[in-house]
Design brief:
Strand order of the largest sheet: 6-7-8-9-10-11-12
Distance between the termini: 107 Å
Number of strands: 12
Helix content: 10-25%
Oligomer: single chain
Strand content: over 45%
Radius of gyration: 29 Å
Structural class: mainly beta
Length: 258
């Protein structure tokens, strides 16, 4: 009887050792370290603490305040993207001095290279302050940065906008147009209806088909030139061969130069 109990004990001990070894093979390997990457860490590596100030990485090396002026996370198919605009405000700048904007797109499914698109050093605005940046949805799973810029001088003003869309593997310009132009500050229309000129352009994204790869844009123009009021409109589809929205020419030719 003692021999039977001893043999049973040895058998159970072998089973226990084998079980422990199998468990170790499953759990003994070092667990994967959680990724320390984040959009914030990437921005810190590119710009340092934000917001912050210092010499901008531009040829003029003007004292600049750098800050995130837009940050949005959106769906892009089965993954997500974070769209970030970093703005440089040049301090104590004169009227003609532009600010600058860097546009960055980060992906959560790009492996080790999470920064999947960037356009840096875009100059816009005046008095050292860059133009406004917003995010526009231009398709079922597509977005674009919209960077506006306006300038006033000698009684005239002009406002433009540029759109930058992402298509693997880069961020690229897809639209550039003038939104407003006017000389009414110099020549009021009530004083000289023939020489005063202005134009307003409105861009409306038509998302009536929410599944479309690219939404068309409705362009609405109104203007006054040579005493006449002008109105026009068009619907513009994205042209994939040129990778742009081919907008019509403005109603009023450029009459103002910066």
């Amino acid at each position: 009887m003692a021999r039977i109990l001893e043999a049973t004990f040895l058998a159970l001990s072998v089973v226990a050792v084998v079980s422990c070894d199998r468990g170790a093979s499953r759990t003994g390997s070092s667990p994967e370290k959680p990724s320390l990457w984040s959009v914030d860490s990437e921005l810190a590596s590119l710009y340092g603490p934000l917001p912050g100030s210092g010499k901008a990485s531009r040829p003029d090396s003007l004292e600049t305040r750098v800050e995130v002026c837009l940050r949005k996370t959106v769906r892009a198919g089965v993954s997500s993207q974070t769209w970030v605009a970093v703005c440089g405000n040049v301090l104590e700048a004169p009227h003609a001095q532009t600010g600058w904007v860097d546009l960055l797109v980060f992906s959560d499914s790009a492996g080790s290279d999470r920064l999947v698109g960037q356009v840096k050093g875009l100059e816009s605005g005046s008095f050292g302050v860059p133009g406004e940046v917003s995010l526009v949805r231009i398709g079922a799973h597509r977005h674009a940065f919209a960077l506006s810029s306006s300038y006033m001088g000698m009684g005239s003003m002009i406002e433009t906008v540029d759109w930058y869309g992402w298509e693997s593997p880069r961020l690229r310009p897809i639209l550039s147009t003038r939104l407003q132009v006017s000389n009414e500050g110099e020549i009021p229309c009530e004083e000289d209806s023939l020489k005063c000129r202005w134009e307003h352009r409105r861009l409306v994204v038509d998302s009536s088909d929410p599944r479309a790869g690219y939404f068309p844009i409705v362009v609405e123009d109104s203007a006054r030139s040579d005493g006449a009021f002008l109105v026009a409109g068009a619907k513009v589809a994205f042209q994939e061969d040129s990778a742009r929205y081919p907008l019509p020419e403005p109603l009023v030719p450029d009459f103002w130069e910066r």
